[in-house]
Design brief:
Blueprint (H helix, E strand, L loop, with lengths): L5 E7 L5 E3 L2 E8 L4 E2 L5 E5 L2 E5 L5 E7 L5 E5 L4 E6 L4 E2 L7 E3 L4 E5 L2 E9 L3 E5 L1 E2 H39 L6
Antiparallel strand pairs: 1-2, 1-6, 3-4, 3-7, 5-6, 8-14, 9-13, 10-15, 11-14, 12-13
Length: 177
């Protein structure tokens, strides 16, 4: 947080309204490295927003937010660098299952947790869709089984058609003059 002692967080509802963002485990780190917790930070709900009054205008603010089982959306009210840390074992690399918006982020894996960092974002919403690592193995296994079944079906029908062609020839139905 640069130059702001107040942060407002609100999520948009499906009908264009605003809802306060439920947060917990708030922390603030001063520029000198000192970290304070919820006892030094005032969190309240006003005007359909979660309002956080920070102990200083410059530093690092962190909170834990609610997420669904496979996605998280975090509204941003202030300009600066931002980071999203995913639960252990989750990944975002495979495009069919994972997506990160906005782009321009740096990704690293530390202690089996994906860290997504943006150097500079302003008044946007960070949206992350993620998956378990094992989901790729399950998906690959299902695709592999379906491919084997499809190839087996094609081979079966090709053999069946050839057998029927031989039977027609033996019966004399394919006799040409």
């Amino acid at each position: 947080v640069n130059g702001s002692e107040r942060v407002r967080l609100a999520a948009t509802s499906g009908f264009g309204g605003r809802n306060p963002v439920p947060i917990s485990a708030v922390q603030f780190r001063y520029e000198n490295g000192t970290v304070v917790g919820a006892d030094a930070i005032d969190v309240s709900t006003r005007d359909q927003r979660t309002v956080i009054d920070l102990p200083a205008a410059d530093g690092t603010f962190a909170y834990t937010g609610a997420a669904s089982s496979r996605s998280v959306t975090a509204p941003l009210d202030f300009e600066g660098s931002h980071e999203v840390v995913l639960p252990p074992g989750m990944r975002v690399s495979f495009p069919l299952f994972g997506d990160v918006s906005p782009g321009g982020y740096e990704k690293s894996v530390e202690d089996d947790r994906v860290h997504l960092r943006w150097d500079s974002l302003s008044s946007a919403t960070v949206s992350v869709e993620y998956y378990f690592e094992r989901d790729l193995l399950i998906f690959g296994g299902v695709v592999g089984v379906l491919a084997v079944v499809a190839v087996g079906g094609v081979v079966y029908y090709r053999l069946r058609i050839r057998r029927l062609e031989r039977e027609r020839e033996r019966s004399g139905l394919d006799y040409e003059e």
